[in-house]
Design a protein that fits this description.
The protein is of the alpha+beta class and 197 residues long. It contains 7 helices and 5 strands; from the N terminus they run H-E-E-H-E-E-E-H-H-H-H-H. Keywords: Iron, Metal-binding, Oxidoreductase, Signal.
Length: 197
């Protein structure tokens, strides 16, 4: 009796070759345009495409990494309209006409951004996987401090802030380095902040 019931149940299930799997409707596409590293880019994307995937898979700028894909590691950090974001957590279509800066737009070999040069000088990387996100975040951290945006360790929430180890460590806490180059990263940021003061 059990064998007969199992046979009847299997007969009721459509074969994989003949039936379309559930949820295979065509994706909804939308046009989106933004400026990436100073260049206007126009794409037509599935509306579910993250900014990270749009930049990596469609524009072939692979500096930003897909680490955790949950906004927990910071490897995907980009600077969008002057603010750092985890690009894995935001949809590309949400950034129509935005200005997006990736590690590729900060500097090039032979013409490094000061933060890139400081990371090299202070050995602020080891395996290098997190480095693009660390550098983009570092550049934005200095801008945040200069703009008077407080952090959780800021003593005065309505004042000007200094580039201290505590401020840097708090603000960079969303960028994980599995190799543990944190002290070198703090030194690199401190040097660049001092030169820009």
């Amino acid at each position: 009796m059990v064998a007969a019931s199992a046979t009847a149940a299997l007969a009721a299930v459509p074969s994989a070759a003949g039936a379309a799997p559930a949820g295979t409707d065509k994706p909804v596409l939308a046009k989106v345009g933004f400026t990436v590293n100073g260049e206007r880019r126009e794409l037509e994307l599935d509306t579910r495409t993250s900014l990270l995937d749009a930049v990596r898979e469609h524009l072939h700028l692979t500096g930003a990494k897909k680490g955790c894909d949950h906004g927990q590691c910071g490897a995907c950090t980009m600077i969008v309209d002057g603010r750092r974001i985890n690009s894995c957590l935001t949809l590309a279509v949400m950034h129509q006409d935005a200005s997006v800066m990736t590690i590729e737009g900060l500097g090039k070999p032979g013409d490094l951004h000061p933060m890139q040069a400081a990371f090299v000088k202070h050995d602020g990387y080891q395996c290098g996987f997190c480095t693009p996100g660390q550098i983009c975040s570092s550049v934005a951290v200095i801008a945040e401090i200069k703009s008077g945006i407080p952090s959780h360790v800021s003593a005065d929430l309505n004042g000007t802030y200094e580039v201290t180890d505590a401020e840097i460590r708090e603000r960079m806490s969303g960028n994980i380095c599995r190799c543990g180059a944190y002290s070198n990263i703090v030194e690199a940021i401190t040097e660049v902040a001092g030169k820009q003061a």
